[in-house]
From TrEMBL:
It is an enzyme of class 2 (transferase). SUPFAM superfamilies: ApbE-like. It comes from Stratiformator vulcanicus. It catalyses: L-threonyl-[protein] + FAD = FMN-L-threonyl-[protein] + AMP + H(+). Residues 1-17 have a biased composition (Basic and acidic residues). One of its GO terms (molecular function) is metal ion binding. The keyword Zinc-finger does not apply. Residues 1-29 are annotated as: Disordered. Keywords: FAD, Flavoprotein, Lipoprotein, Magnesium, Metal-binding, Transferase. The lineage of its organism: Bacteria, Pseudomonadati, Planctomycetota, Planctomycetia, Planctomycetales. Transmembrane segments: none annotated. The gene is apbE_1. Its EC number is 2.7.1.180. This is FAD:protein FMN transferase.
Length: 380
C-alpha cells in the first residue's frame, strides 16, 4: 500500500532462528516451544559501550504480511493466551488494509475515489477517522503531507516503469488535482465528498501507522500491557517495558550504510516512524530520484537523507515523518517547537567526510543512545 522505505527504524534484528509464522505459533507444540525459545535482539550492542546502550532480552514475535510489508507483534515471554491476542491484532491489520488501500479494486478507499465526486459517500468509523486526521495534518504541515496526492504518486510510478521523468504538462495536471480543500467530510453523517472530479486520495503515508494504533488499542483492551508493534520496520508503536528497561530499545538505521545502526531510542507508550529515500529510488540520466514527493511541486524532494519522528500515535509519526522530509530542517524544527509532543531526528546529506550531521529535536537525552563515531550531533 505504501511506497515508503521498508527500513529505517529497526525493531527487532534477528540473531539465530527466523521468527515463526503465525500458523506455526498457533500449533500447540510449536507455540509452546516458541514461547520458551524465541530470542530476539532489538538493538545491536556497540563494542565497548554495552553498559550504556539498552539491549533486548528474550521475546516472542508473531508476524504477517500486509500493506506490502511485514507487520509484527513483539512481546515479552508470557502466557500462551497472549499469542492468540496478538494473532487477533494482526487480523485487524488485514481488515484495515481492505479499507485504506488503493491497490484492490474492491477496497473502501477505491470506492470513495470512484464515487465521491458524484456525491457524499458513506464510510465506516475507521476510514473516516484516518481521513479526518490526514486532512488535519495536511493543513498543519502547509501541504507538505497531502493525502490528495494520489495522482502524483500514480504518475511517478508510471514514469519509473517507463524510465522517464514526467513532463511539465503532466506535472501541472496532477498538481491541479491536488489539494485538501477539495475534500469535504461530514462527521455526523460519516461521508466523504470531492469538490473536484480529479481528486484521488492515497493513504500510503499514514495507513501503516493508523493500523498500528488500532492494533495497539486492541491489545491494550485485551490486557496485554507490554509489546512492540511494527509495520515494515519504518513504523513502530511501543507500550510498556522490556528486559528491565523503561521502554523498548528500537534501533535507528544509518541511511548511508543500511546494514548499520547509528543509534537506539528507548520507546515507551509512544510511536516512531522513519522516512527516507535511500531504499526506493530510480536513476535517470545519471541523477537519483527518490520516491518521496513534495505534493506542492509534484517532484521528489532530496533535502534530507532521513527523518525519524516520535509522537503519541503511530499515525501521527507516520504522516509527520513524510511531512518533515519534505519540509526540511528549519520548518520541521518550528513544527516540533509548536507541537511539543512531537520529537524528531533530522539527517541532512553528509558534508564532513561521510559522517552524519544530525539534528535532534525534543527527544530526551536519557532515551537516545547514539554511536558518536558515525555522527556529528546537534540539538534544538
Amino acid at each position: 500500500m505504501s511506497d515508503r522505505a521498508s527500513r529505517g527504524s529497526k525493531p527487532p534484528a534477528d540473531h539465530g532462528e527466523q521468527p515463526a509464522s503465525r500458523r506455526g505459533f498457533l500449533r500447540g507444540d510449536s507455540a509452546r516451544n516458541a514461547l520458551e525459545a524465541a530470542q530476539e535482539q532489538l538493538a545491536d550492542e556497540v563494542a565497548g559501550e554495552e553498559s550504556l546502550i539498552p539491549t533486548a532480552g528474550p521475546t516472542v514475535r508473531l508476524s504477517t504480511q500486509a500493506m506490502a510489508c511485514e507487520f509484527s507483534v513483539v512481546m515479552n515471554p508470557g502466557p500462551a493466551s497472549q499469542v492468540m491476542r496478538a494473532s487477533d491484532a494482526l487480523d485487524l491489520v488485514h481488515v484495515l488494509e481492505q479499507k485504506m488501500t488503493v491497490y484492490r479494486d474492491d477496497a473502501d478507499l477505491v470506492r470513495v475515489n470512484e464515487q465521491a465526486a458524484d456525491g457524499p459517500v458513506p464510510v465506516d468509523e475507521d476510514l473516516f477517522e484516518v481521513l479526518a486526521l490526514a486532512l488535519e495534518l495536511c493543513e498543519q504541515s502547509d501541504g507538505a503531507f497531502d493525502p490528495t496526492s494520489g495522482r502524483q504518486i500514480d504518475l511517478w510510478r508510471r514514469c519509473r516503469a517507463e524510465r522517464r521523468l514526467p513532463t511539465q504538462r503532466e506535472r501541472d495536471e496532477v498538481l491541479a488535482a491536488t489539494g485538501c480543500a477539495d475534500v469535504a467530510l461530514d462527521r455526523e453523517a460519516k461521508t466523504v465528498r470531492f469538490r473536484s472530479p480529479q481528486t484521488s486520495l492515497n493513504l500510503g503515508a499514514i495507513g501503516k501507522g493508523f493500523a498500528l494504533d488500532r492494533a495497539a488499542e486492541f491489545l491494550a483492551e485485551q490486557e496485554v500491557d507490554d509489546f512492540l508493534l511494527h509495520g515494515g520496520h519504518s513504523s513502530v508503536a511501543a507500550r510498556g517495558s522490556h528486559a528491565g528497561h523503561d521502554g523498548w530499545p528500537v534501533g535507528i538505521g544509518n541511511p548511508l550504510l543500511t546494514s548499520k545502526r547509528f543509534g537506539t531510542i528507548l520507546l515507551k507508550d509512544r510511536a516512531m516512524s522513519t522516512s527516507g529515500s535511500n531504499i526506493q529510488y530510480f536513476r535517470h540520466e545519471g541523477r537519483k530520484y527518490g520516491h518521496l514527493l513534495d505534493p506542492r511541486t509534484a517532484m521528489p524532494t532530496d533535502g534530507l537523507l532521513s527523518v525519524v519522528v516520535t509522537a503519541p500515535s503511530a499515525a501521527l509519526a507516520d504522516a509527520l515523518s513524510t511531512a518533515f522530509f519534505v519540509m526540511g530542517v528549519e520548518k520541521a524544527q518550528t513544527f516540533c517547537n509548536t507541537y511539543t509532543s512531537v520529537g524528531a531526528i533530522l539527517i541532512p546529506p553528509p558534508t564532513r567526510g561521510g559522517r552524519l550531521d544530525i539534528v535532534s529535536i525534543g527527544i530526551p537525552d536519557e532515551n537516545l543512545f547514539l554511536d558518536t563515531d558515525q555522527l556529528v550531533c546537534g540539538s534544538d
